Amino acid sequence: MPITQSRYQVTTSSLPRAVPGKSPYYTPVAKPVSYTRVAISPPSAGSSVNTSAVPSLTSGSYAGSTSGDHDTLDAGAHGVDLIDMMSNRLGNVIDPLPLDRSLARQAQASGELNAKQRELQELQALAQRRLKGTRANLADGMKAAKEVRRDLEWTQKRVRALNANAAKKHPTAYKTASARYPAPIDC
């Protein structure tokens, strides 16, 4: 007997779920705020708005108490410049001395690199001048060597021609002189 399963969908009604609301301290910003210098004065002591960091839990709402939260504030704080205040706080947090030292080291290293670069360029120019002079000297030497070779070849031809003429005109004297003074061997 085969087992048959009935397939059906169980429908249950969904119960409403509690969605967490926004924190009473959150105030949505409707549009982007441009930061400008604004003078803000603290609320007066009779105001119903609590501006302390800790809300008062004695009343039914979080509007806070009016029990002199700003007693410690200076009475001359009516013109607070937010940008100056933040820059002063950041100025006190960031120690500029290491930054100044690293900037000085960087400037010194940059100066040293520039000096080395100039020195290398001067040495390169000197090497180029020396190379040019050496090439000129080599060209002059090659020219002189070619002239000497031509002169030697001409002189050798001339000596051979004179020897041949002397051998033709005076054969007996040439033989005795050749025996006494032998000619060098050509390589």
Give a structural overview.
This protein is rod-shaped. Mean pLDDT is 75; it is low at 59-75. A two-stranded antiparallel ribbon has the order 1-2. By secondary structure, the chain is mainly α. It has three helices and two strands. 51% of the residues lie in helices and 2% in strands.
- The quaternary organization reads as single chain
Give the termini distance in whole angstroms.
123 Å
Helical fraction: 40-55%
Strand content: under 5%
How many strands? Answer: 2
Number of helices: 3
Strand order of the largest sheet: 1-2
Shape: rod-shaped
Biggest beta sheet attributes: 2 strands, antiparallel
Helix/strand-derived class? mainly alpha
SSE string:
EEHHH
**What Rg, in angstroms, do the CA atoms define?**
54 Å
The average pLDDT is: 75
Q: Give unreliable regions as ranges.
A: 59-75
Task: Give me some keywords for this one.
single chain; 187 residues; mainly alpha; two-stranded antiparallel ribbon; 2 strands; 51% helix; rod-shaped
